[in-house]
């Protein structure tokens, strides 16, 4: 096992810069998830750690060793691909043992390792099968098995669950997390699914347009997003953003929405009277309350049993409201909502950076 | 009549297959039991087949066919594979090179035969002079006129003509290999040679089996190049079964005998195909 250190790592394709000076410390045994929309550079970064892409500038270390110019096979890593990349002409056992075979390990040792990994993943009865005779979930497991047989320093996962159906994805998510808790191997996991990131990660790296937006524990990102992008990306349903003007008096501070409604704010926020801001308000932080500060008109109601979410018009904009249990609202209703001042996120509307 | 209805649907296809494939085949085979002379033909039973056993020319033609087929196929395949592997890598001007490489396939075989015959001709062609300059020939003569070397002429022309076929089909198969497989192999620790032998080759195996089989059959029955370049000569040195059939049927006008030889070639090729398919099956089972 080993730590992974990225020091000002950069990637250019010709004059096109796809990754800007990424700095990241991944501790030994940590499970780090790189998350972001497609094209944000997360897969490129992972492939650079794997040695499948050249590093344009900066330095990648695995443990103490700089690996910029080390071949993938000598980095002591294992990678799980989105397409699984199983060798179609080899059976499950050969697929899993291929790396050991290439390293000229003893047959007995290979069998022991393969059988161990197979029983851990419930693949015992499938060892003689070819990949084409397996279901998607089983193939995914074989790909995992191939990685753990190696007992590498670092696991790299490139959207390993994207090709599975929703139910299996949730199941495998839990399995991968349980596996990591057993093996405690340093893992870097790429996904575009923020739920996967939130549920699996020790720390999340949110990326956008080749720039790391924020690095932190899942709930830290949720509670204190560094900018409007992270705020909108983390959390489902997504955060509502409302343009507002600050009204600060000696008595209190409030955000005045486009239609004149007031949202009380914390006085400690570094905002001045007349500032234009963007208010971020999570759907679950708005409550239906008879004495609420703002009134909205309900447009669509989505009852989910466990919870209810509804969409309503506020200051000419659609906002989402999420409530546990059942809420007796109907489309067309005028409802009053309250939000705690502490739950308000304030962003600079131009730069998108968090204020306060 | 439910028993008849399916046959009505199948009818048009069956009639087409029978008239286009089966009838000519049966007629051809039936000729091999007859003897043709100027204005009549008579049934001779297995007489034409018996005649083959004592035909020294046929023996040589069979040997020449083996030599011609194996020689052409060997170089076509390995050069084609090499070319496909080169063209699978990105380099500047790849599209143009690809187009040029595939050009020989588009040249009519008669034209390439003539061109190559001229290239080997010491009066108009440069090749004999080059061979002489390299010390491979004592004096610049056409290799086509020497029975010991004549077969190399059509084989070289055939290699030039057939390499694109293997290059195209193998390149298409190479392109269908997902890049992740090579990446996974690279991470698993495979050297470039191991990536080729353990990932690329198994992936290409089905394509190789089918193209080699097809190509063998085509080369064995391919008479154009030889006929244009040497007409089977000198002294029968380049006479293959295919040219022998042509000469028997249209020069000696012995259609019955030509048909009997054609049936022999057909049986040999069927045997070859069966053996090759058997090998491929057992390979697929073992891996």
From TrEMBL, chain A:
Q: Does the keyword ATP-binding apply?
A: yes
Recorded GO MF terms: ABC-type transporter activity; ATP binding; ATP hydrolysis activity
What InterPro entries does this protein map onto? AAA+_ATPase (IPR003593), ABC_transporter-like_ATP-bd (IPR003439), ABC_transporter-like_CS (IPR017871), ABC_transpr_MalK-like (IPR015855), ABC_transpr_MalK/UgpC-like (IPR047641), Mo/tungstate-bd_C_term_dom (IPR008995), NA-bd_OB-fold (IPR012340), P-loop_NTPase (IPR027417)
- GO CC terms in record: ATP-binding cassette (ABC) transporter complex, substrate-binding subunit-containing
PROSITE patterns to which the protein is assigned, alphabetical: ABC_TRANSPORTER_1, ABC_TRANSPORTER_2
Domain ABC transporter: residue ranges? 4-234
Q: Source organism's superkingdom?
A: Bacteria
Membrane topology type? Peripheral membrane protein
Keyword terms, alphabetized: ATP-binding, Nucleotide-binding, Transport
Q: Where in the cell is it found?
A: Cell inner membrane
* An annotated GO BP: carbohydrate transport
Q: Which PANTHER family match?
A: BLL2173 PROTEIN (PTHR43875:SF10), MALTODEXTRIN IMPORT ATP-BINDING PROTEIN MSMX (PTHR43875)
Entry's family note: Belongs to the ABC transporter superfamily.
Q: Know the name of this protein?
A: Sn-glycerol-3-phosphate ABC transporter ATP-binding protein UgpC
Q: Which organism is it from?
A: Aminobacter anthyllidis
Q: Name the gene.
A: ugpC
């Amino acid at each position: 096992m080993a730590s992974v250190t990225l020091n000002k790592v950069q990637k250019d394709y010709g004059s096109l810069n796809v990754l800007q000076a990424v700095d990241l410390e991944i501790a030994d045994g940590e499970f780090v998830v790189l998350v972001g929309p497609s094209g944000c550079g997360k897969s490129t970064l992972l492939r650079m750690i794997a040695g499948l892409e050249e590093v344009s500038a900066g330095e990648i270390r695995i443990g103490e060793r700089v690996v910029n110019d080390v071949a993938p096979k000598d980095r002591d890593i294992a990678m799980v691909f989105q397409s699984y990349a199983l060798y179609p002409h080899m059976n499950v056992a050969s697929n899993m043992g291929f790396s050991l075979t290439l390293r000229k390990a003893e047959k007995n040792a290979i069998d022991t390792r393969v059988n161990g990994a197979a029983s851990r993943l419930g693949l015992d009865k499938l060892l003689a099968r070819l990949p084409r005779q397996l279901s998607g979930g089983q193939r995914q497991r074989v790909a995992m098995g191939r990685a753990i047989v190696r007992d590498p320093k670092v696991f790299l996962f490139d959207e390993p669950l994207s090709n599975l159906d929703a139910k299996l994805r949730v199941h495998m998510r839990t399995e991968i997390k349980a596996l990591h808790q057993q093996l405690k191997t340093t893992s870097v996991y790429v996904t575009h699914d923020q739920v996967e990131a939130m549920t699996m990660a020790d720390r999340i790296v949110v990326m956008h347009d080749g720039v790391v937006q924020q690095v932190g524990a899942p709930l830290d990102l949720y509670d204190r997003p560094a900018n409007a992008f992270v705020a909108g990306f983390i959390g489902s349903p997504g955060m509502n953003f409302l343009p507002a003007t600050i009204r600060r008096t000696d008595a209190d501070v409030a955000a005045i929405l486009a239609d004149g409604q007031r949202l009380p704010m914390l006085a400690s926020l570094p905002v001045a009277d007349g500032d234009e801001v963007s208010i971020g308000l999570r759907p679950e932080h708005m409550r239906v309350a008879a004495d609420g500060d703002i009134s909205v008109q309900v447009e669509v109601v989505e009852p989910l049993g466990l919870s209810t979410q509804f969409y309503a018009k506020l200051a000419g904009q659609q906002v989402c409201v999420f409530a546990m249990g059942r809420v007796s609202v109907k489309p067309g209703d005028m409802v009053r909502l309250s939000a705690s001042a502490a739950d308000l996120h304030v962003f600079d509307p131009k730069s998108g950076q968090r204020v306060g | 009549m439910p028993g008849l209805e399916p046959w009505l649907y199948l009818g048009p296809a069956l009639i087409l297959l029978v008239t286009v494939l089966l009838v000519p085949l049966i007629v051809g085979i039936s000729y091999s039991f007859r003897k043709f002379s100027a204005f009549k033909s008579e049934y001779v039973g297995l007489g034409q087949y018996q005649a083959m056993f004592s035909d020294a020319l046929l023996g040589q033609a069979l040997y020449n066919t083996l030599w011609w087929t194996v020689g052409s196929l060997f170089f076509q395949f390995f050069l084609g594979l090499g070319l496909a592997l080169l063209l699978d890598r990105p380099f500047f001007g790849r599209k143009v090179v690809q187009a040029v490489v595939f050009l020989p396939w588009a040249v009519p075989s008669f034209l390439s035969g003539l061109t190559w015959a001229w290239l080997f001709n010491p009066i108009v062609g440069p090749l004999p002079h080059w061979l002489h300059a390299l010390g491979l020939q004592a004096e610049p003569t056409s290799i086509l006129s020497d029975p010991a070397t004549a077969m190399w002429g059509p084989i070289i022309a055939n290699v030039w003509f057939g390499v694109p076929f293997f290059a195209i089909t193998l390149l298409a198969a190479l392109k269908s290999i997902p890049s992740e497989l090579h990446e996974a192999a690279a991470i698993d620790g495979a050297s470039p040679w191991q990536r080729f032998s353990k990932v690329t080759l198994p992936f290409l195996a089905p394509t190789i089996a089918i193209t080699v089989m097809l190509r063998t059959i085509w080369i064995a029955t391919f008479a154009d190049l030889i006929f244009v370049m040497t007409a089977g000569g000198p002294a029968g040195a380049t006479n293959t079964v295919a040219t022998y059939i042509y000469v028997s049927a249209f020069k000696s006008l012995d259609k019955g005998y030509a048909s009997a030889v054609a049936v022999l070639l057909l049986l040999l090729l069927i045997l070859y195909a069966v053996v090759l398919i058997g090998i491929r099956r057992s390979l697929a089972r073992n891996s």
